[in-house]
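Progress against Task 2.4 (sequence-to-structure conversion) is shown through the following example record, which the project officer requested during the mid-term review.
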Amino acid sequence: MQTSVAKSGLWDELKTDWVCFDCELMPWSSKAQELLIRQYAPTGAAGRSALRETVAALRTAAARVPELQPVAEEYEKRAEMVGQYVDSYRRYCWPVHSILDLKLAPFHLLASEGQVHTDKNHVWHMDLLTRLCQFDRELLLATPYKIVDLEDGASEAEGTAWWEELTNSGGEGMVVKPFDFIAKGKHLVQPAIKCRGREYLRIIYGPEYTSPEHLTRLRSRGLGRKRSLASREFALGVESLQRFVEREPLRRVHECVFGVLALESEPVDPRL
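C-alpha cells generated for the chain above:
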C-alpha cells in the first residue's frame, strides 16, 4: 500500500506522510472461518441430508396417495432453497493460504496530515482510490460505482439494472450513499445503506427466507433504531478523525472511539 501511494503521487499531492483509508478485506470468509464452520456449513449439510430423505419418502407416498402431492412439492421447494443457501455462501469464499490470496478494497480516503476528507464528494474518493489501485493489482481492488440521479427516471432504471446485473452474476450487492460525504436534510442523512442481492440475503436470513410468509414478516420490521445508531456512529467517527488531525490529546480521540464501541454493544438485530 505504501508503495502504491508513492507511485500515485499522493504523498506530494496531499502534502502528508500518512494516510487513513476505509477498506474492506476480502474474501469475508477469511475473517469468518468460525462462522462458516459452526453455522453455515452445518446448517447446509443438515438441511440437505434431512430434506433429501424427506423428499424421497414423500414422493413415494404421493405416488400411492395423490393428496400428498402438494406436501411433496412443498418439501421439494424447501430442498431447492437449502441448495441455494449452500451455493450462496460458497460463492463468496475462496481459499486463503497466504497474504497473496487476499484482496484489499479501499473506498474512502478518510484523513491525511491536517485534513479530514469529508468535504470531498464520493466521486472524488472513488476516482482517487481507483488511481491508487492501479499500482498494485495483486493486493488492491478498485470498487466500481455508478451515479444515480433520483429525479431522473431513466437514471434510476439504469442504476436498478446495474444492481440486478451485478447480483445476478454472483455479486454481493451495492452500498447506496448520498453524493456528498456528509449530507443533511432536516437531519443528518444516513451515510450509507447496504442493498444486498437476493441470494446473498439467503446467507443472512436463512435458506427459506424467500417463502412468502417469511418475506412478509421481514418487511414489517422497524429500522429506525438501526438507522439512528448508524448516524451516531458516523458522527463520532468523523469527530474522532477531526480531533486526531488537529493533534488533540489521544484521550480526546479515544472518547469518540469508546462512544462508538458503546453504541456497538446496543441490542440491535445484527442481520439488519
